[in-house]
């Protein structure tokens, strides 16, 4: 069991990989427009499957919004 | 007249049907860049974008929230050149990561770089801005930095390899127009990249003034999105940018201290 943060919020029981985490957050990992950073570094989508989460990881999941 | 001023004037004098805005080797027809934020609803935003004729549309990149996931900006703006910003970032570090996330999310290496010094004035933090610009250019980004209307800062941004400079007209969202036209002219006289006035424009005459000064384009958002009728204001801004550009290319008459009759002075009756 990993304890990580997703967008600043703690997750007590995180799945094994980044791709599983994106799904567990209720998102479609194949949908355009998503981007993920792990501990301050962008993880390209094709690496989500084989990126294993570790305790203490800080994950950011973002997408485009309206902006000026 | 400085040498660069001469270059800029002769460039402007060659205006023709094929008058294009070229940034980093990419040509655009419209000289109006429009933001996508703050419209009454998404349909008004899309109608405003259409009325403005803008090709380049700015977006932000934010932490995902399930509530906000219904309609994707990527899908609704599929026919636009989407330019992600780093709005709200207060450090070079956050701005660089945001730009990299935007590149991954949108598949573009272009970024409107914004690093603000405080959330009240929204003034840029120049030191962090130049640092972030330098880092992103080295990482292969086409960097369009929002900055103060300060020729020294503009030069530093050009020196680190920015593809345009975007000095503020006045504070973001203030609608005060171009507070310091002399400073914008100084930047124009020296810059060898496009100069885009970004922020503070309030109405059509502000956009026309920016173009008459010789700016290559304007970027605005609030002036349209918060107008009583955003679609109509978008149309007005489009006309203003075109009018200002034409006036610049046409070459205005010099200001005179006194009257100069326009009708013939000969053959007046009663003389």
UniProtKB/TrEMBL annotation, chain A:
Cited Pfam families: ThiS
Protein's name according to its UniProt entry: Thiamine biosynthesis protein ThiS
Cross-referenced NCBIfam families: thiS
Record-linked SUPFAM superfamilies: MoaD/ThiS
From TrEMBL, chain B:
UniProt key word Cytoplasm: yes
Pathway per the UniProt entry: Cofactor biosynthesis; thiamine diphosphate biosynthesis
Matching Pfam families: ThiG (PF05690)
Binding site for 1-deoxy-D-xylulose 5-phosphate: 173, 199-200, 221-222
Catalysed reactions listed for this entry: [ThiS sulfur-carrier protein]-C-terminal-Gly-aminoethanethioate + 2-iminoacetate + 1-deoxy-D-xylulose 5-phosphate = [ThiS sulfur-carrier protein]-C-terminal Gly-Gly + 2-[(2R,5Z)-2-carboxy-4-methylthiazol-5(2H)-ylidene]ethyl phosphate + 2 H2O + H(+)
Sorted UniProt keywords: Cytoplasm, Schiff base, Thiamine biosynthesis, Transferase
Cellular localization per UniProt: Cytoplasm
Active site: 112 (schiff-base intermediate with dxp)
Positions in coiled-coil regions: none
Cytoplasm in keyword set: yes
EC identifiers of the protein: 2.8.1.10
Residue span, Thiazole synthase ThiG domain: 22-264
Quaternary structure annotation from Swiss-Prot or TrEMBL: Homotetramer. Forms heterodimers with either ThiH or ThiS.
Function: Catalyzes the rearrangement of 1-deoxy-D-xylulose 5-phosphate (DXP) to produce the thiazole phosphate moiety of thiamine. Sulfur is provided by the thiocarboxylate moiety of the carrier protein ThiS. In vitro, sulfur can be provided by H(2)S.
Family to which the UniProt record says this protein belongs: Belongs to the ThiG family.
Protein name: Thiazole synthase
Lineage: Bacteria, Pseudomonadati, Pseudomonadota, Alphaproteobacteria, Rhodospirillales
